[in-house]
Write a structure and sequence with these properties.
The complex is a heterodimer of chains A (264) and B (264). Chain A is α/β, with parallel strands linked by helices. Chain A is built from eight helices and nine strands. Chain B is flat and about 75 Å long. The termini of chain B are close together. Classes of the chains: A alpha/beta (264), B mainly alpha (264).
């Protein structure tokens, strides 16, 4: 029996001011505890879709239900969002950056402090809490950004190409850490990437999107057990899944880059 | 060059230039026998400065006082206006043209009116100088309050931040570098405004500022004293600039690119 849906999109489309259609009407269901990845070329609307799920954008047509609610302002459970860039406040240290969502919600100081310590512990930044963002490497800044998303103990974590700007080694390490967090913290992830390999490594399910207009063209379950480690990256199954996803990206009529790593 | 040596060199290099220029000036005036009522020698200016020190320093105090009070007034009113402008596009569209109008109208043409309307001459001078100094503070601070990382703005929206929270925790700190740069420009303008207003007002006696000393020395053909007053005005300008630069370093040195020590 499938897990209960937490976000349901029915006939959702988005047209920007000026008539540019970012997303054609589409249906999508995000289920509890899944690691769903949206993959596709630039301009396929994957970031737009993520922002619609977050409630940062309103759909032009269609309906979005979150935990059964269709009011975009009701938020029965918490949503964490990790952006492409770390988007940390440069004037505040790591702890204050991570505490921001709690401060905005007026959480009592002592309680907030405990939450922050826990979130920093989860991402391995406990020792860096007094440092300023500029004193951190790109990977550490991204960890701080993830800690800020986790500090509200989200039920749903939305991630918009979070590791796209990092070097390959750092990205693979953070992918592994993210999977460990996802296994232990029991939240649901909706992840956006343009890297097919990253998508296959992380996901329970991949949704393939195409551009002009943005639409969903394929979906693919990755039926491989967790924890996944480096041996999965070099396995036969991994190569087959990657080939399958590449083929459906290519079939959508958009030239998919041979190496998904080089494009940014 | 190491950091310590550079710190010394930064002060010594302009001093060497000053010594060279002053030496050449002294030599030229002496050798060519230029009369002091045309161009006084640097030594004569220094002697005049010392001889008339009581009078000149009192005037310096008055001019500097007017400039500082004007800078403070322009800062408070300018920052307040900028905060008002960013509340709505309507307010900005309605009021910003008048800020520009104030800026482009030459102070010499408004000063007589202000001096007639305001009974207290000191207050009138401060108002004139503040009118000259306020524009860069308004325009810079408005720009800064709008130049906010869009990712952080999304994060504040996701966290259901109130308008006030967004203003205070995000817009104000983001605007700080712009505001301080505006203040630096305004510091010079405040002094210019103070001098121009004094020229127009022509206040003598115990309320005589440096501009009045220049005016008087010009009429009396006491060119060495005119030069001595000029030197003091220039020094006052430098002091005001140094004050705002110090404030800027104090506020930004920990996190903003403009004040970070450069490597190499």
């Amino acid at each position: 029996m499938p897990a209960p849906p937490i976000v349901e999109l029915h006939g959702v489309s988005r047209t920007y001011d000026g008539g540019v259609r970012a997303l054609a009407p589409l249906d999508l269901v995000v289920r509890e505890r899944e690691f769903l990845t949206l993959v596709g070329p630039s301009g396929c609307g994957k970031s737009t879709l993520l922002r619609l799920i977050a409630g940062l954008l309103l759909p032009t047509t269609g309906e979005i239900r979150r935990w059964g609610e269709n009011d975009p302002h009701a938020q029965p459970r918490r949503i964490g969002f990790v952006f492409q860039a770390p988007t940390l406040m440069p004037w505040a240290n790591v702890a204050r950056n991570v505490r921001l969502p709690l401060d905005l919600a007026h959480m009592p100081h002592a309680e907030a402090k405990a939450h922050v310590a826990e979130a920093l512990e989860l991402v391995g930044l406990a020792d860096a809490k007094a440092r300023l963002p500029r004193e951190l490497s790109g990977g550490m800044q991204m960890r701080a950004s993830i800690a800020r998303a986790l500090v509200v103990r989200p039920s749903l974590l939305l991630m918009d190409e979070p590791f796209g700007a990092l070097d390959e080694f750092t990205r693979q390490r953070l992918d592994g850490e993210l999977l460990a967090l996802w296994s232990s913290q029991r939240f649901t992830v909706t992840f956006v990437t343009h890297s097919i390999h990253e998508a296959v490594f992380l996901s329970t399910r991949i949704v393939v999107m195409a551009a002009h207009p943005g639409r969903i063209v394929d979906a693919c379950d990755i039926d491989e057990p967790y924890p996944r480690d480096e041996s999965f990256r070099v396995s036969q199954a991994f190569a087959q899944y990657a080939a399958r996803v590449s083929a459906s990206v290519a079939a959508a009529g958009t030239a998919a880059p041979a190496s998904t790593e080089a494009v940014r | 060059m190491n950091a310590g040596a550079w710190r010394i060199a930064r002060f010594v290099a302009p001093l060497v230039v000053a010594l060279f220029v002053l030496g050449a000036w002294q030599l030229w005036v002496t050798l060519e026998k230029i009369p002091p009522y045309l161009v006084p020698s640097p030594l004569l200016v220094a002697r005049t400065l010392y001889a008339d020190r009581t009078l000149l320093l009192q005037s310096l105090g008055i001019t500097l006082g007017v400039a500082l009070e004007a800078l403070a007034l322009a800062t408070i009113v300018g920052a307040g206006a900028a905060l008002l402008f960013v509340q709505s596009r309507w307010i900005e569209a309605s009021l910003f043209p008048y800020a520009v109008l104030l800026q482009v109208t030459p102070i010499v043409s408004i000063a007589p009116l202000i001096i007639i309307w305001v009974r207290d001459i000191h207050v009138a001078l401060v108002l004139c100088a503040a009118v000259v100094a306020i524009f860069p503070i308004i325009s810079n601070t408005t720009l800064g309050l709008r130049s906010v990382d869009p990712g952080l703005l999304d994060l504040f929206r996701l966290s259901r931040a109130t308008r006030l929270q967004t203003l205070w925790r995000l817009r104000v700190p983001s605007a700080l570098p712009y505001f301080l740069a505006g203040m630096r420009i305004a510091s010079g303008l405040a002094l210019i405004g103070a001098v121009v207003a004094e020229f127009v007002a022509g206040t003598g006696g115990r309320a005589a500022g440096l501009a009045y000393q220049i005016l008087l020395a010009g009429i009396q053909l006491d060119i060495p004293r005119l030069f001595a007053a000029l030197v003091l005005i220039a020094l006052a300008g430098v002091a005001l600039f140094a004050l705002t630069a110090w404030l800027s370093r104090l506020a930004l040195s920990r996190w903003h690119e403009s004040e970070l020590p450069r490597e190499g």
